[in-house]
Amino acid sequence: MDHASISKHDIARFMLSEDESTQAKELLEMLFDFQEVTKALQDPTLTLAGVRRAFD
Asked: Do the domain assignments include residue 2?
């Protein structure tokens, strides 16, 4: 989106700053990791050793 469109529609106040964008990307990466571990923990064939490996 170009500067003219941002100014015309007054959406700059809704856009993330560079730091906020970085934080959002880092949070998203952590959530993907969390989701993968959650799925793995629900596997009925998972053993205690497998759980320990997941958290090491």
From this structure: no
Dump pLDDT digits (tens) for 4-44: 777 777 888 888 899 999 999 999 999 999 999 899 889 99
Domain containing residue 26: 16-54
Q: How much is the pLDDT for 50? A: 85
Residue 1 lies in a domain: no
Let me know: does 55 contact 33? Beta carbons within 8 Å: no
The model's pTM: 0.62
Q: What stretches of 10-54 show up as alpha helix (H) in DSSP?
A: 18-41, 48-54
What is the number of structural domains in the chain?
A: 1
Amino acid found at 53 = R
**DSSP annotation of 56:** -
Residue 38 lies in a domain: yes
